[in-house]
Amino acid sequence: MSGQENKRTGAEIIWEVLGREGVDVVFGYPGGAIMPAYDAMLKYKIRHVLVRHEQGAAHMADGYARAGGGVGVALATSGPGATNLVTGIATAMMDSIPMVCITGQVSSKVIGSDAFQETDITGVTLPITKHNYLVTRVEDIVPAMRQAFYVARSGRPGPVLVDIAKDAQQATTEFVWDGSPVRMPGYRPEHRAGADQLKSAVDLIDHAERPILFCGHGIIAAGAGELLRELVEKTGIPVAATLLGLGGFPATHPLSLGMMGMHGEAWVNQAIQQADLLIALGMRFDDRVTGNLKTYALTAKKIHVDIDRAELNKNVRVDVAIAKDLRTALVEWLPHVEKRDRSAWLSAIDAMKGDSAVRDIQQLPDDGHLYAAHVINDLWRLTKGDAVVVTDVGQHQMWEAQYYKHDRSRSLITSGGLGTMGFALPAAIGAKVARPDAEVWVVVGDGGFQMTMCELATIAQEKLDVNVAIINNGYLGMVRQWQEFFYDKRYAATPLLGPDFAKLAQAFGITGVAVKKRGEVAGVVEAARRSGHATVIDFQVEQEDSVFPMVPAGADLDKMIRRPSPIVETAAD
Amino acid sequence: MFRRRAFNIESLTVGHTETPGVSRMTVVVETDEYGARRLEAHLHKLVPVRRVENITVAPSIARDLALIKVAATGEARTHVMQLVDVYRARIIDVSPESLVIETTGTEDKIDSLLEVLRPYGVMEMVRTGRVAMARGAGAAEKPAARVTQVAGAHDASAGSV
After folding, report:
1. Residue B114 maps to which CATH number?
2. Separation of first and last alpha carbons in chain B
3. Which residues of A fall within a CB distance of 8 Å from B160?
């Protein structure tokens, strides 16, 4: 092949590299500085999903990565296009999601001159990307993009941004691709722990009387769910999950305790406070998980395994800290840990449940009101737990975590660390594109839905079968709940007027239905499931319901506010 | 990164190293041992950072360079020149109204010179901040607080220090 045949423009090189990195879809929005790349796109087979706002592109790339396990790609222009990605990038950074954002930049000759639509986006995204690149020469596009994909998916994954000047996209150079591994001298994604750490960990596990395993997001990211299950079944140790760890271990497994932390079950948090060993796998002891650090799990020794060394001993001091890929760590542990009878500890945990089952909202008598928790529990039963559920942020997110039992990795997609409202709808689009055969449900509040509802147009244009359950209580519910508990019911700026969501959906050419009674839930959900196209369901639920139990922010983990139960209160009299 | 993780930089110097394309930064941060470990781990994570050494308690040499402009004429000028000798500093510029003194040494030595010069009228001063290096052939791996060395590669278009 002559050299001439390998000449490509920078814009073409972008697509050549994307194809070779295994990218089959990008989520984007065109604009001036990225136009050369868009023009070149027509020559390549990679699918492009046109979003309605660049924030949606970032969340879609994120949802695509979370659902499918690959790297999500978002494409945007310079200036406002790039800054609109910021919330989505920060969301992916907090939750360690592999994502590559490609932005157009003004021509290298005018960078720094406040040119039209110029923003220093590598400066802006410095603290919210794992790494970023400003490319001003066409020859640098291949190495920068290859490194971007390598950095995004290796070690602790994260978002990487590549900002490419318009003149670099337009210039031509020899396209050279060799499949050799990327070399980056300063970047060490993997660590190796010594044999002594293996021995200390195994000793602690074998000698613990009251151990609990923590399943964090790392289990899912590392694809270590099966290994965790083997470890659990060999050792008999029960598992509590973080919000992002849900699905990493089957929720319906007898040794699954469910979610821990602020809105975890009270008895799970009590068990943590009484444990003598915590084995934390791929999690970061977020404040939502620990409550007051000064009183957190004081009786427990702690083993912490995380691929990111900087997470070890960050919030909680631990006895054995292992910076390692979870699969590697669990494969090492499995032959060494002992099978033990843990029935005494398991019955002790069982005893902690006390009246929890009675207080459960599912036990409330049908008083004609529609409760969000009932809707979600019905959704779980009707979808047989098989759906990919994408949640937004707030009360509905916690009810989903409590009442939709996730048995499989990557079946719950939610913004955990950043808590980004408006995440669900676009992330669900990404999830559906990544897994077209999966049944995808959005569970979203009326507040978060209104932040990014323009993406209904994307659903319509792409003809995606994504069903949307709006948990509509007419309030910014979680903030309202905090106002009720901690601000003497002063509802500052939380009552929220929404549109007629069913009519709104219809305006986008999407089926829209409103549901006001429990009895209607099953029929509407089943119809949506069978329809083969998107349906938006406006569940008009009880307005001033709260998520229980709850550890107030900064309080001790076992000092929970419990759901007031008419049955329990009466029995106590 | 320092700002994001709520660390305050006391001094920062950057310069070339023996390897082309690799720069070395000496960063002074006031923190405790826990903070120092956290900082070291976070610095390690930055993609362009090749090596991080905490040299606070390791045997090390630290130097600071200062240029001090003093208003000294007549008899005062003689006194200042004597002090410069005592401190093994140098006079590198002379004008009718002022002298510029160059001095290298530990921060303490420079502070002390500055103190004795102050009565003669310090018009202006500039300091490099601390540069430091471990003694002997290698760098000791001892955890503790304060001085951190960062060697960063400034590869083509890399940007995250």
Report:
1. 3.30.70.1150
2. 7
3. 126, 129, 131-132
